[in-house]
Specification:
It is a single chain. With 256 residues, the chain is of the alpha/beta class. The protein has a domain of 173 residues: Rossmann fold (3-Layer(aba) Sandwich), CATH 3.40.50. Helix content is 41%, strand content 13%. The protein has 10 helices and 8 strands. Helix 2 packs across helix 3 and helix 5 crosses helix 6. It is globular. The mean pLDDT is 93. InterPro entries: AB_hydrolase_1, AB_hydrolase_fold, AB_hydrolase_sf. This is Alpha/beta fold hydrolase. GO terms for molecular function: hydrolase activity.
């Protein structure tokens, strides 16, 4: 089972969830290109991330996996699964959408990017700005530990990697291709998610009638930090129903 983080994250955000599932599956948490311990040329499109993912599966000799993607990680999974559906035994999409700011004009996109560039003081996000962004992403009554951890994650962002991922995401649109996702899909979102409102996840459910959608009451955009036990239960249930379709293997470590 492979876990993919969002645009403001890293592999460690999924570690508690992966640890809770190791009795059921071999788990891997990846750092996307230029996140965490991963390095490489700046991405130009979501296809670059998808190519990285498919290359990783090839490297590890995995024909089919269950994959869990949060936010940008969900976009990467949708992109990869549209390109190579045979590689995925199932998808769990958390706070994910099938199009990202596709309605914006080029001028509006540049304004949006400019605001995100302003998060950085030189190469880093200041503690004050990181705390402000964390507050905007989490539910108002999210655990303080989640708020502290997410703020630290924003401070650790690599500027060029984050901004290139953001530019690659803006305008990405796979809505017309959702029906090609014939593998089992589960959808997860928080009722207080302002980054990817439940209506965006509902749009995927409408395109994929067999996909089950779970709404977590009082949870914001980061259920893996705000409600890890609920995430483990949902993913564990998905594994029970669909895990037999994934490749059988063992790994010496789970973070890549």
């Amino acid at each position: 089972m492979l876990f993919l983080h969002g645009i403001g994250g890293h592999s460690g955000q999924w570690t508690p969830i992966a640890d809770g599932l190791t009795a059921r599956a071999a788990t891997l948490c990846w750092d996307a290109r230029n996140y965490g311990g991963s390095h490489g040329p700046m991405v130009l499109s979501m296809a670059d991330f998808a190519d990285d993912l498919l290359a990783l599966l090839d490297l590890l000799g995995l024909e089919r996996v269950i994959a869990v993607g949060h936010s940008m990680g969900g976009r990467i999974l949708i992109e990869a699964a549209c390109r190579a559906p045979e590689r995925f035994a199932g998808l769990v999409l958390s706070g994910a959408q099938a199009a990202h700011l596709a309605h914006m004009t080029e001028a509006e996109r540049e304004i949006y990017l400019g605001r995100r560039r302003a998060m950085f003081d030189g190469e880093t996000v200041t503690p004050e700005m990181a705390a402000r962004v964390a507050d905007s992403v989490l539910a108002p009554d999210a655990p303080e530990a989640a708020r502290t951890a997410l703020s630290a994650d924003f401070q650790a962002l690599r500027r060029d990697g984050y901004l290139s991922a953001l530019a690659a995401s803006i305008g990405w649109d796979r809505r017309a291709d959702l029906t090609s996702l014939t593998m089992p899909v589960a959808l997860l979102t928080g009722t207080l998610d302002t980054v990817c409102p439940p209506s965006e996840t509902r749009a995927i459910e409408l395109a994929l009638p067999e996909a089950g959608m779970t709404l977590l009451d009082g949870i914001g955009h980061m259920p893996q930090l705000e409600a890890p036990e609920a995430c483990i239960r949902l993913i564990n249930d998905f594994l029970t129903r669909h895990g037999s379709g994934a490749s059988v293997t063992e790994f010496p470590r789970k973070d890549l």
